[in-house]
């Protein structure tokens, strides 16, 4: 299923020069785009919301007919327990996270201990936990860790764009993780020469115009055949003013949705 994520609304949520888009506003925009899935991913206000506010937001999502997924950073048991409770409130069946959190950088051994403590509750609840490919941890090490559990509720959130900062190739990341992928983050990316020819900027591109070989990902991972959701995100640089940036963000979202639908 195609979904939109919080990073597809990055500048709209930021509210630079305009009223910030609320979480429920993003829900409505997702529904208006003809999309049935929204991933609340790294959305800081969620951690500050009261139980009543969470319940209200979940009610809006249900009224709109949206399926919700969640995303956070870190795998310490307290954080994963908190997000399992949030998953229950939103009827979410997947939580995306990453090994490193805001205040934690576990060793591989510590990561295994934490996951063995937290994962049984996810398994009992039928909620999947998807750990994202990131530059902080070699893809091969992440694959080894996830595979060691052999749990259908523990998988990988595949984002090949992230690993370039580790000098890994996106295609290699796709191939290494393919069998364990439980969620896909969809965005294109490219390098551009900086002014004066002194280096490059690595950032987002409108889907289908950058370096991401998405047909290779589709062929290798087979997300549509396996029921793996594809969540739209962007790495959109600031475009000089709020109006232009937000308009471009919306255009990129529509372009990505159209691209994904054209490849189905």
Automatic annotation (TrEMBL):
Respond yes or no to whether keyword DNA repair is given for this record. Answer: no
List, for all copies, the residue spans of the domain called Xylose isomerase-like TIM barrel.
Answer: 28-255
Full protein name: Sugar phosphate isomerase/epimerase family protein
Q: Determine if Isomerase is one of this entry's keywords.
A: yes
Q: Name one GO molecular function term.
A: isomerase activity
Q: Enumerate the UniProt keywords alphabetically.
A: Carbohydrate metabolism, Isomerase
Which ranges of the sequence are coiled-coil? Answer: none
InterPro entries under this entry?
IolE/XylAMocC-like, Xyl_isomerase-like_sf, Xyl_isomerase-like_TIM-brl
Pfam families recorded for this chain? AP_endonuc_2 (PF01261)
């Amino acid at each position: 299923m195609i979904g939109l994520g919080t990073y597809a609304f990055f500048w709209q949520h930021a509210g630079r020069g305009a009223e910030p888009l609320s979480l429920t506003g993003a829900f409505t925009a997702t529904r208006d785009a003809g999309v049935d899935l929204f991933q609340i991913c790294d959305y800081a206000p969620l951690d500050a919301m009261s139980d009543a506010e969470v319940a209200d937001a979940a009610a809006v999502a249900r009224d709109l007919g949206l399926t919700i997924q969640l995303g956070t950073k870190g795998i310490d048991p307290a954080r994963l327990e908190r997000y399992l409770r949030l998953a229950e409130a939103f009827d979410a069946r997947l939580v995306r996270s990453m090994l490193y959190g805001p205040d934690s950088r576990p060793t591989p051994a510590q990561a295994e201990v934490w996951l063995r403590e937290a994962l049984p509750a996810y398994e009992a609840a039928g909620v999947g936990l998807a750990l994202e490919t990131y530059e902080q941890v070699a893809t091969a090490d992440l694959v080894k860790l996830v595979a060691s559990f052999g749990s259908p509720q523990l998988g990988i959130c595949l984002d090949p764009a992230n690993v370039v900062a580790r000098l890994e190739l996106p295609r290699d990341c796709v191939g290494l993780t393919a069998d364990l992928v439980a969620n896909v983050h969809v965005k294109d990316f490219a390098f551009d020469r900086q002014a004066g020819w002194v280096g490059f900027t690595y950032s987002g591109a409108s889907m289908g115009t950058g370096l991401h070989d998405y047909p290779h990902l589709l062929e290798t991972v087979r997300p549509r055949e396996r029921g793996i959701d594809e969540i739209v995100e962007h790495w959109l640089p600031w475009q000089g003013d709020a109006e232009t940036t937000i308009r471009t963000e919306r255009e990129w979202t529509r372009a990505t949705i159209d691209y994904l639908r054209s490849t189905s």
